[in-house]
């Protein structure tokens, strides 16, 4: 590896890059005609890479404006390891400015935070990757293995017009890639230890629940609202939705979750054994992140949308509902059987979106490099695996046989309700966390 000491550093520009990225309104509504901003943001990212000498490839993933940018940095010529993919998505969920204390697309830097939609999900990681890509190129750095930087569209709507389209139609973009790192992992959780001290645990994502959006439909005989009716589509769907919404799926502990629970138990003394009678109650003693962690113990099915009728005195012929299902690895068949029992014979179901779960093991050279990078900048810390209750573009890359992890390192203040910031009002990320993460990610990429 070569790097000149007078080369501008990633930490010097990462905050400005994240702030600028936020100022691009890349709101993904889930509808092609109303989603905007990805092309403009991707073009800017490409210009920032080309400015320091990269040859970039801009690709629209199946629809106009769904912009993606790729750049490669060659690795050591004597390396026999495959390329490492560093991926981040440019789109964000919509935000209503009236609800925020700052404009959600201002990229305001104040009170020690970078504010705006995407600050957490996931323009902080995009900014870190972009800053480091620029630093490495300017400095003439040769990493141990080839690095592939990918800045992608449409993750917030499941990646149909982003990573999944690219994997299906342009697998050549990922040629040689064997491992990948992306969002929602590497952030810290501070716990109280049995000796009265604190320990920061850095959660590396090794698993994701499956993401499946399900439509329920009931058909019935249309008629006047004043008549007696033996069947009613609204009633059938409403009853099915209520049964699903109130249902508790069985507790199932995967390998990643079991390792996480064992590590936290060792540090805290909490009884987090899978068969502990109050496991979920004990988990909530870990603070706000328990909402994310607790959701990895069971399948979930949360009703989110209802649609029926067009007039108060007309019995509709059809009623529909949408349910957001998140399914643990290995549970698809059992989950579907349970759903069929809950909805009953008069309601049909179909998958609107169906993305498989994913799980890998917490071992190997890449995990060792993550651990070493964290410890180099937080010597008293510990890395632990965990499962994400949501999903990322890793689901697409896994189809190519790529081993995927979530590793976007952030050292977070203990008091920060990090879970609430995902898709939340006044989304923001600490400046110090982004600077810390850039240093850790630099160490990781130079030793991976």
SSE order and pairing:
Layout: H1 10-23, H2 38-51, E1 56-60, E2 67-73, E3 83-89, E4 109-110, E5 113-115, H3 123-139, E6 147-152, H4 163-169, E7 177-182, E8 187-192, E9 198-208, E10 210-219, E11 223-224, H5 233-246, H6 255-268, H7 279-283, H8 290-294, E12 300-308, E13 314-315, E14 318-327, H9 332-343, E15 348-355, E16 358-359, H10 365-377, E17 382-388, H11 394-398, E18 403-406, H12 418-421, E19 428-430, H13 431-446
Parallel strand pairs: 3-6, 3-7, 7-18, 9-17
Antiparallel strand pairs: 1-2, 2-6, 4-5, 5-19, 8-9, 9-16, 10-14, 10-15, 11-13, 12-14
Helix pairs in contact: 1-3, 1-13, 3-13, 10-13
Structure description:
This protein has 448 residues and is of the alpha+beta class. The protein has 2 domains: 230 residues, Zn peptidases (Aminopeptidase, 3-Layer(aba) Sandwich); 96 residues, Alpha-Beta Plaits (2-Layer Sandwich). It is built from 13 helices and 19 strands. The strands form 5 sheets. A 6-stranded mixed beta sheet has the order 1-2-6-3-7-18. Strands 8, 9, 16 and 17 form a 4-stranded mixed beta sheet that branches. A 4-stranded antiparallel beta sheet has the order 12-14-10-15, with helices on one face. α1 packs across α13. The radius of gyration is 23 Å and the shape is globular. The relative contact order is 0.18.
